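User: Round two. Same drill as before: sequence, then structure, for each protein.

Assistant: Same drill it is. First protein:
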Amino acid sequence: MVALGGELRQLHLLESPKVEKYITQYPEDGDNIVGKLKYENERVYINETQYFAGVPLVAWEFYIGGYQPAQKWLKDRKGRELGYEDILHYQKVVVALVETDRVLKVVDKVGVV
């Protein structure tokens, strides 16, 4: 359990090497301005034409502490332009959420005696 807790800590602080292995893409050029968000077919649209592709539903809907980080992070930037580092950061957040879900499933199994 201690090792799993340590893994969760690293994931949540984006310090785990796993967050550098992106599972998403940001394929469309544009102004990178966050507007109306929409999730559809594993795509998180930040505006009419630009999106993060390959975002699993589990990451989009994941709750931590009463809010959904994958949604809140973008909502907090509505009307702003995402820079290169912002785009990379969001992709790390998605990996961290998917990995958190995986670790929590292991914790649930370990907890069963």
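Second protein:
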Amino acid sequence: MRAFEILVPGGEVPDKNMSYLMSFFTYGYFGIIYQWIKYDFDETPEQIKNHINRAILSAASK
């Protein structure tokens, strides 16, 4: 999770709202990677990317 946080340009976010948004995505992506590890990498990175895309599109359409 820390690696994702470090990837933020400059290590800081511009405001509190962006901080919450970055945390949401950082920990969400970590959760997906964690589950993928638990499933012994039984899917390709492309399949995982598709899961992420579907989840985001599903959330955005509600």
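The chain has one domain: 2-60.

User: Perfect.
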